[in-house]
Amino acid sequence: MGVQGKLIVSLEVKCGGHSVHDINNTNSHHLPNISPSRVKHFEIHEGEKGKIGSIASWKYYEDGKEMFAKTVIEAIDPQKNSTTWNAIEGNC
């Protein structure tokens, strides 16, 4: 049985929103190096990084437990520095 809902995250950072947006869209493969205590692995399965319809998997840590999510990019808005991901598999 899965849980359905919508998760909206706001995060205060000490850099411009464009930097975070760039990392999430075009440099996602660097996330395990940037934050190894939070993100263990990132891999693109279909499509290209930063493109709508691309499918990627994530292994990450939540409360000390390793979690897995497979996501698809549904929307990208560079003007708002916004990306919409939809989890399609995993224990997220």
Automatic annotation (TrEMBL):
<dbReference type="InterPro" id="IPR000916">
    <property type="entry name" value="Bet_v_I/MLP"/>
</dbReference>
<protein>
    <recommendedName>
        <fullName>Bet v I/Major latex protein domain-containing protein</fullName>
    </recommendedName>
</protein>
<dbReference type="GO" id="GO:0006952">
    <property type="term" value="P:defense response"/>
</dbReference>
<dbReference type="InterPro" id="IPR023393">
    <property type="entry name" value="START-like_dom_sf"/>
</dbReference>
<dbReference type="InterPro" id="IPR051761">
    <property type="entry name" value="MLP-like_ligand-binding"/>
</dbReference>
<dbReference type="Pfam" id="PF00407">
    <property type="entry name" value="Bet_v_1"/>
</dbReference>
<feature type="domain" description="Bet v I/Major latex protein">
    <location>
        <begin position="4"/>
        <end position="91"/>
    </location>
</feature>
